Amino acid sequence: MSQIIDGTLYRSGSSHACAAQLVVTEHHLSIISNGTEQCSYNLTEVQLSDAIPGIATEIRLPNGDMFIPADKNWRLNKQTGSLLSHLESNWLTVFSSIILAPALIYWLIMVAMPALASKSVEWLPESIPAYMGEQSFTIIDEAFLSPSTLDDNIKNSVNSLFDKALETLELNIEDYQLLIKQSDYFGANALALPNGTVIVTDGLITQLMEFEKTQNTATFDSMLMAIILHEIGHVEAKHSLRLVAQSLSNAIVFALLLGDLETVGELMVGASSAVIQANFSRDMETEADNFALSHLGKLGYEPAAFADAMESFNEEKVDTAESIFKYLSSHPAIVERIEKAKNFNSQQ
Amino acid sequence: MELNTTEQIRRSQVQFSGETGQFFKIWIVNIVLTILTLGIYSAWAKVRTHRYFYSNTSIEGHQFTYLANPIQILIGRIIAVVLFIIYMGSVQFVPILGLFIMLIAMFLMPWVINRSMRFQNKMTSYRNVRFGFKGSYGEAFLVFIILPVLAVFTLYLLMPWVIKKVNEYIIGNTTYGDRQIETDLSATDYYIAFLLVVAISVGAMFGFGIVIGIGAAIFGATVDTTNLDPNGLSAAMFIMGPISALLYVGMFSLITGIYQSRIRAHNFTNSKIKDVVTFESTISEMQYTRLVFFNLIAIGLSLGLAYPWAKIRKARYLANGTFVEIHPNADHIIDDMTDEKSAIGEEIADVFDLDIAIT
């Protein structure tokens, strides 16, 4: 059995082309042009391009010539890429792919990558978060912080609260450092750096002290402790490292999958990765909240102290938006956090 | 099928025979396989996609061929990912290192660009003759580093001229077999195209201003700064968001359409291979703007699913808007790279498959 295929023969080493026929038998292949046989080869000697639906097979001969059949669908048995080509032309695999693709992308970004990121963070040597913390502290300190203007007694009491927290939770004192700083940029706030540096602003301390006066139940100590524990929770769970690892892995996933998308595709990817990033950071805030809530008891405070601390913010900032903004925000809504702290109390 | 007997110059339109349905299937299966293989298959996906487009593009019945081997591309991607992790990691952990890396990258960039141009061109063949790239490091350093820096110091007034130099460098160093493309571009046409782009951008800014003004007028009443009503604000977002997105896409399409069709036409008319081929681009500014606009809208509304449709449509439009005049000599180009064939697999430096586009 032999088949004869019409096509074009491209000579090696020049742009010369001529009409020719390919004759394929069980083990051999020969080229006929101008009515005479030009050459003949064993099938194992010739190189066939991978089968792709809709494009002709390119047949490369050992002498550098190339033959392209006129029939785009002509394939030799056992041509490589045939299975892929089959998958790519079968509507069943295509329909399952349409469903699988979004599901897999979701799984990859929301489940697999975060898991991988938090696992890989465990393997990093201690010197990395230490160095990272120092570096970011230098920048933050330069740009946004100035020395505290509070009384020494207040500072001392805040420091002793912090020491008490470390001691009770059996954490290494060497790993942590509390700094009280004045900052117009951060206002009333507290932040944790990956090397265990916890910064509490003057603004936060005064805000809590003011709030204590208007309330009869909430004490300054309990509220500040709730916030300190929240920040310790960030450090203990290595959140900043996880955030870096996740943004890194997401960038790679997006680049590989959607590498050759054009501008609007890239814009969409950028926007969705920002949403995903905010999502992660929200999850981490929730984790830190839970850390604070579950450890307040050990220190002799009620989890409700966390709700009080949050409520002290509630008056100045309106954060009740139950809207699309929720997905863009890096912190959970304050109302939700207060509700949770109160419910945490009743669960115990 | 007599192919090369006429001894006259032949005018021919570039043909594209790819089909949306067929490419959609290849594309979606490739995405799933890429995820299932944790990205490894992406190299095969790239080769299959490129081959689909190259092989479906033909002049005078002869198709283009894409020759890259997925393994080469895979190695290139692994190197790229590793470099990316090192870069991101070091910048995150030691921000100052970023500066050093930028400096090194500046000196490396011309070399990388040359390599990747060479790779792209060498992996392309037509009638069994390969394209090539002859750019030198010195020239690349001049057009990609020194001139752009110079342009910054002239408040970007030199930028159109610099872009012209870049395009001249890329086109003029392209070879087909033993022949080299000759190109002689005029800065005037680049300045005109840039001025149009600036004019459109300024116009669009006014457009944005008006839309935001109207938005503020309509929703301003419900939004009181001391008592922010989140529902009023999100309603505003829901209506104003799509309108500004539409305006943005419109502006982007108009800029792309006008700039690219003009520059393309100019580059094609003023480039040739002596006694072999001349080029002509017949892309219309408004048709191309419309194409880009609806492509972007379709991709956005379908959450990406219309991507294959858009890509095929664009390839067909660009191919059909390209005419070549072929001299009889075109049938006798010598492929001076036949001897190198065996060494290609080993050339590790050829793994750079960055896409550098000229328009």
Concise structural overview:
Chain A is of the alpha+beta class and 348 residues long. Chain A is 53% helix and 15% strand.
Outline the structure in words:
The complex is a heterodimer of chains A (348) and B (359). Chain A has helices at residues 82-89, 91-122, 127-144, 152-168, 202-214, 220-236, 239-258, 263-296, 304-314, 334-347, and strands at residues 3-10, 17-24, 28-33, 36-42, 47-48, 59-60, 66-69, 146-147, 177-182, 190-192, 197-201. Chain A has 348 residues and is of the alpha+beta class. Chain A has two domains: 3-84, PH-domain like (Roll); 120-347, no CATH class. In chain A, the strands form two sheets. In chain A, strands 4-3-2-1-7-6-5 form a seven-stranded antiparallel sheet, with no helix packed on it. Chain A has a four-stranded mixed sheet with strand order 8-9-11-10, sandwiched between helices. The termini of chain A are far apart. With 359 residues, chain B is of the alpha+beta class. Helices cover 60% and strands 12% of the residues of chain B. In chain B, the strands form two sheets. In chain B, strands 2-3-4-5-6-7-8 form a seven-stranded antiparallel sheet. Chain B is globular. Classes of the chains: A alpha+beta (348), B alpha+beta (359). Chains A and B meet through β2, α1, α2, α3 and α7 of A and α1, α2, β4, α3 and α8 of B.
Number of strands of chain B: 12
- Biggest pleated-sheet summary of chain B: 7 strands, antiparallel
The number of distinct helices of chain A, counting runs of at least 4 residues, comes to 10
Beta-strand percentage range of chain B: 5-15%
Strand elements of chain A, count: 11
Task: Report the mean per-residue pLDDT of chain A as an integer.
Answer: 81
For the largest beta-sheet of chain A, the strand count, sense and barrel status come to: 7 strands, antiparallel
Count of alpha/pi helices of chain B: 10
Helix content of chain B: 55-70%
Oligomer: heterodimer
Q: Using the alpha-carbon principal axes, give the shape of chain A.
A: rod-shaped
What is the straight-line distance between the termini of chain B?
35 Å
Mean pLDDT across residues of chain B = 83
The tally of domains of chain B stands at 3
Helix share of residues of chain A? 40-55%
Alpha carbon gyration radius of chain A: 33 Å
Report the sheet-strand fraction of chain A.
15-25%
Distance between the termini of chain A: 83 Å
> How are the strands ordered across the major sheet of chain A?
4-3-2-1-7-6-5
Order of helices and strands of chain A: EEEEEEEHHHEHEEEHHHHHH
Structural category of chain A: alpha+beta
